[in-house]
Every structure is written in C-alpha cells, then in structure tokens.
Design brief:
single chain, about 375 residues, alpha/beta, two-stranded antiparallel ribbon, binds adenosine-5'-diphosphate
C-alpha cells in the first residue's frame, strides 16, 4: 500500500498532515502549558511519521489490538465491499487523540489493497486544495481527512456531491455568465477523523455510512500494545514492566509508545538488559508521570480546584485562565482522562473534583507536582 500525504500547498514530506495545521478555534492546540508533557495524547511534530516503514503502527486488522467492536464492524464492511468490488462506505472515526484513528484509516486501505491519501482539514483552505485531491483519486482509494470538524464551508460543500454521487460540481465563470459543470470522480472512501464529533455539521455527518467511536483501551489491551511495541524496538520487557507502562499511559497507545521510548533511554544509559517494573518507575518518575498516568499539569488542575475553589464547581474558562492553558486543549486533552478515571465530574454548574480525585492527590500513587 502506498501512502501519500498531502498538505494542500504545504510541501509534502515526512512532516505529514498535522504539521501543516495552525491552531484555530475549535482545534486541539497542542501548544500551551501541557504541550511538552510526556502524557499529552496529541502527536508531536515528527512523531509517528506515516511514511516511516519501521514505525510502530499496526498495518493489518489482525495487528490492531483492542477496539473489538470497531474492528468487527469494519471487518464485515471490508469483506462485503471486497466481494462486491465497490468502494467502502465513508467512515467517520471519533474519539480522543492517540487512540488509533489515523492507524485505522491506514489499516483499512491496506485491507482493501489500495492507496491511502492523508491530509487534514486545516490544509484544505482553498477550494483547489480539496478539488486537487479529489480529481487525483483512483478507484476505491481511501482519502483520510484528520480534524474533519475544522473543514471550512466551501470545502464541505465541495465534499457533499463528491461523497454522495462521486461528482464534483464546479462553477465556471463569474456573474451572469457563471455556469455549473459536473465532473465524474472515481468512487472513493472518505475516512474522517475528529476529536469533536459534536462540532461536525449534520449534513456532513449524515453522509458517512459508518460512524464509529474509539474508546480508551483497557489494561489487558494496553499491555499487549506495549509488548508488541517492545518487540519492534528490540526491548526485553518483563510482564510486570509492561503492566506498569500500561497503567500509566492514560488508556492511550500513543502515550504507551512514548513512555516506552523514555524507559528505553533509561535502560540504555543504565546498561540494563531485561527491563523490570522498578526501572519503569524510575524512568517515569523522572518525567513526573505518577502511578495512574497523571502528570504535573493534571495534578496542578486538581490542586487548583481543591485549593482555590474548594473542589468546585468551577467553570472551564476560569480553570484555563488559572492554569495559563487554552480552554479547548483543557477540555479535549486534559479532562477526558480525568473524567474517565472518575477524578473529575462535569456538571451544569462547572467542574468538580471527586473524592477519588482528592484521595489521589493525597495518596502514594501521586508524585509531587
Ligand atoms: P489518532 O489518529 O487517533 O490520534 P494514531 O492512529 O496516530 O492516533 O495512533 C497513535 C499511535 O498509537 C500509532 O502510531 C500506533 O503506533 C499506536 N496505536 C494506535 N492504535 C493502536 C492499536 N490498536 N494497536 C497498536 N498500536 C496502536
């Protein structure tokens, strides 16, 4: 399978789609205070380049660990499509960053035996960016658009007939001489990814035949992901060490892989052969990632809420201002895992720290912020 990464006018290359995006409203801005954190689930520039063949991304459905419901739905859809020799229905994948949306788009193309063209909505600013991509698609190819909730109106309207009838409606000329011309496109599959399904316009959402949510991964799946990555990185990892990385990676494969690389550094410098749980603990304490995967910015958020607001309720904007963080980043990147752990609650009156959140701050699993 060939992978083509398009960044609109930006130079293609290993930088990939995310690097062409500039932060704008509605985006998950990887900047801000938590940007440098080891447990920030947003990909860093040049992390996981899609072109690199020695990467950790699973290539086939059989290597894609966890998300069993998603895999089952897509396996059936792929098999049915292959037997009918048609393009797969358009797929919308949504869920927090780092859970495997891009990976799944690449896996789908591999399973279908076609190329995957990769871009992200912010790179499709001008009509000709998306038109250029669409007219160059070959039959049954996959077009992956990351952060699809950030598409502008014009790009969306070009996509509607393209998705529905594989047709491009072009306006030629101006004013009274303007005419609409239609151009047939090759049947293709659009795979859209978003962290904010609610921000998608309903006409766009309605044009996806398959809409699937990615969930945070459970401990068992994460251990398997860590062991698989350790194998690819030629690391000898004791099962207890894999379990320790899995416990601290916030249910997110991208973070699991990142933590594993930091553990590998400490093991290499210390000349350790087989990696055990104590070494994982030593490596991750160095980066202030605690026993449940919280880092300094998570603990600062919980402490601010407890110390300055009596545990809440407190509004998102107030918290963001207090932490010097962007509210959208706080909501999309920091909060989901704290909500998942049951350390934080969202209520109509604001955010509240739960008793479990308070206990964690005071407990032995936390490290000093
Ligand atoms: P997203 O697009 O949702 O932000 P990615 O697809 O880029 O996430 O995944 C981030 C990294 O996590 C990938 O490079 C891959 O190595 C790893 N990964 C994601 N999902 C899985 C999975 N199910 N099994 C193994 N590794 C995975």
């Amino acid at each position: 399978m060939a992978i083509i990464s398009s960044g609109g006018t930006a130079a293609p290359g290993p930088a990939g789609p995310r690097r062409t995006a500039s932060p704008r409203p509605g985006s998950v801005d990887p900047g801000g205070v938590c940007a440098g954190s080891l447990v920030n689930p947003v990909a860093r520039p040049d992390e996981e380049p899609v072109h690199r063949e020695d990467g950790l991304r699973p290539r086939r459905l059989a290597d894609y660990i966890g998300q069993s419901e998603l895999k089952q739905v897509l396996r059936i859809a792929v098999e049915a499509t292959r037997s009918r020799e048609e393009a797969l229905d358009h797929v919308l994948l949504y869920g927090p960053p780092g859970l495997g949306k891009t990976t799944m788009a690449l896996v789908l193309a591999e399973e279908l035996g076609v190329r995957c063209r990769i871009t992200s909505a912010p790179a499709l600013e001008r009509p000709r960016d998306i038109v250029g991509l669409l007219v160059n698609l070959q039959p049954r190819e996959v077009l992956f658009i990351d952060e699809i909730h950030r598409l502008n109106r014009v790009a969306e309207e070009i996509l509607y007939p393209a998705m529905e009838d594989f047709r491009l409606d072009l306006t030629v000329g101006k004013g009274t001489t303007a005419r609409t011309r239609s151009l047939a496109l090759a049947p293709f599959t659009l795979v859209g990814a978003t962290t904010r399904a609610g921000s998608l316009s309903s006409p766009l959402r309605d044009r996806f035949g398959l809409i699937q949510r990615l969930e945070f991964y459970g401990q068992g799946d994460l251990e398997a992901i860590v062991q698989r990555a350790a194998g690819l990185l030629h690391l000898a990892l004791q099962p207890c060490a894999a379990a320790e990385v899995a416990r601290r990676c916030r249910g997110t494969p991208r973070i699991a892989n990142r933590l594993l690389r930091r553990v590998r550094d400490v093991a290499a410098v210390g000349g350790h052969g087989r990696i055990d749980a104590a070494l994982v603990d030593e490596a991750l304490a160095l980066h202030r990632v605690d026993g449940r995967g919280l880092d300094a910015s998570d603990r600062r958020l919980l402490s601010l809420m407890v110390e300055a607001y009596g545990g809440g309720p407190v509004g998102l904007e107030t918290l963001a201002a207090g932490l010097g963080e962007d509210p959208a980043t706080l909501e999309a990147v920091v909060e989901p895992f704290l909500l998942q752990l049951g350390f934080l609650q969202r209520t109509p009156r604001g955010r509240i720290v739960t008793p479990a959140g308070r206990a964690h701050l005071d407990g032995p699993a936390a490290v000093a912020a």
